[in-house]
From TrEMBL:
PROSITE patterns (UniProt xref): HTH_GNTR (PS50949)
An example Gene Ontology molecular-function term: DNA-binding transcription factor activity
SUPFAM superfamilies the record matches: Chorismate lyase-like, Winged helix' DNA-binding domain
Protein name stated in the entry: GntR family transcriptional regulator
Swiss-Prot/TrEMBL keywords: DNA-binding, Transcription, Transcription regulation
SMART domains: HTH_GNTR, UTRA
Membrane-traversing stretches: none
Domain spans labelled HTH gntR-type: 25-93
Gene3D superfamilies the UniProt entry points to: Chorismate lyase-like, Winged helix-like DNA-binding domain superfamily/Winged helix DNA-binding domain
Pfam families in alphabetical order: GntR (PF00392), UTRA (PF07702)
Stored InterPro entries: Bact_HTH_transcr_reg, Chorismate_lyase_/UTRA_dom_sf, Tscrpt_reg_HTH_GntR, UTRA, WH-like_DNA-bd_sf, WH_DNA-bd_sf
Length: 263
């Protein structure tokens, strides 16, 4: 097989194109990002055997040592696991929520080749309290839709999501089938709302009694608390969501670039 150059033609991950040929990233790092992208895009699925060091070396025209370094780092990050005498496999337990494109739970889980599911815990119209009103940029007391969902992948509970939504006609969502449909899809396809961007915060914490029960975890388990505000094409906040992700099952991934100094 002809070696696939690490930089330049044939490279799928878009970030590669931003780098000038003068200052390439280390090869092991590039390979790491390529493999990470394969997992995020779903090309490599949980449980898949990844190519050997030798195969990766041949495919990308790098040494086995370099391939080994990339694999080892992803093993250390929990993306891969090794089985003695069998090879290296894509981990099952960590779900990656990439923080680059705005995607919803259904998309993230489907991309991994798993089956997303939802249990609606509660859906109702309530008056916006101060916090919700501030995030949705509306007046306190306006009726907003509160939606609480347990999210599962292959029947395993992963997250509890508590959303507040406000838009003209949002009360119709109460009658929608939110157990079998993606909220993002409904908003876009049925309500014609264009979701453009989101802000998200992440914080470490421990699960309380209620969430522990829902997530099948011992009380006080490590968890990731997120808050996300999603905006429409008119820059209007439409959803403010607070979610709890099981800490042992989730990785949040972001890729960042340093501004190039122009001297
Ligand atoms: C994400 C968002 C949630 C959104 C959901 C839509 C967080 C904390 N959660 O899980 O705000 O409602 O995606 O997913 O960022 P869906 O389209 O599958 O319903």
């Amino acid at each position: 097989m002809a070696p696939e150059a690490l930089i330049g033609k044939g490279m799928e991950p878009t970030f590669m194109h931003h780098h000038s040929h003068k200052s390439p990233l280390p090869r092991y790092y590039q390979l790491k990002e390529i493999m990470r992208e394969k997992i995020i895009s779903g090309a490599w699925k949980p449980g898949d055997l990844i190519p050997s060091e030798r195969e990766l070396g041949e495919q990308y025209g790098i040494s086995r040592m370099t391939a080994r370094q990339a694999i080892t780092e992803l093993v250390n990050e929990g993306m891969f696991y090794r089985e003695q005498g069998k090879g290296t496999f894509v981990s099952r337990h960590k779900i990656t929520q990439q923080l680059i494109r705005l995607t919803g739970f259904t998309e993230d889980i489907s991309a991994r080749g798993q089956a997303p599911a939802t249990r609606v815990l509660n859906v109702t119209m309530i008056p916006a309290d101060e916090n919700v009103a501030e995030h949705l940029r509306i007046r306190v007391g306006l009726p907003v839709l509160r939606l609480q969902r347990l999210r599962l992948a292959d029947d395993e509970p992963l997250a509890v999501e508590r959303s507040h939504l406000y838009f003209i006609g949002c009360e119709q969502l109460v009658d929608d089938d939110l157990e079998h449909q993606s909220l993002y899809r409904l908003l876009e396809a049925k309500y014609g709302i264009q979701l453009i961007q989101a802000e998200q915060e992440l914080e470490a914490g421990l699960t309380n009694e209620e969430d522990s029960k829902l997530l099948h975890l011992p009380i006080g388990s490590p968890a990731l608390y997120t808050r996300r505000t999603t905006y429409t094409n008119r820059d209007q906040p439409i959803e403010y969501a607070r979610s709890i992700y099981s800490g042992s099952k989730y990785t949040f991934y972001t890729h960042m670039m340093r501004n190039q100094l122009v001297l």
